[in-house]
Input
Amino acid sequence: MRPGSFCQRCGAEIESGAPRASRLEPPRCGRCGEHLPVGPVPAVGVAVLRSGRILLVRRRYAPMQGSWALPGGFLEVGETPAEAAVREAREETGLTVKLGALLGGFHGGGSRGGVIFLCYRAVVQGGRLEAGDDATDAGFFSLEEPPRPFARGPHPHVLARLRAERRDR
Output
């Protein structure tokens, strides 16, 4: 299933023609009532490199359940993108990270406008590596040959940019 086809609050699959109170109101999730985005939704992630290896998590839930991806997720109400990136890294990997520069903004697909994925460079400051929250596994893997299945959407583009930067040095 494509990103944007699941409720960002409860994870329910969104059927086409989701209910609306009026044509002026965005559609709502049939399970929890959350307003559904109709354009790109902001999401964040971290690119943590250590000795040429990238930090990845195996996704616990749909979409892309079982795929390896960068640690990340959606912003919560009142969070800045940087705060969300630090929180998501800690929740999914057990690691505390210090953010560096923004690596870039990447578009991810989806029938409802998809996501705009802001990916930060980051370094590990502390914690113990262990899968948590939305992940079933976490670890450092070869940047050149990430584990399979690998996530779709913006994740391959982030890895491609990191590999290109390494070649250009």
Q: What stands out?
A: Helices lie at 81-93, 155-168. The mean pLDDT is 88.
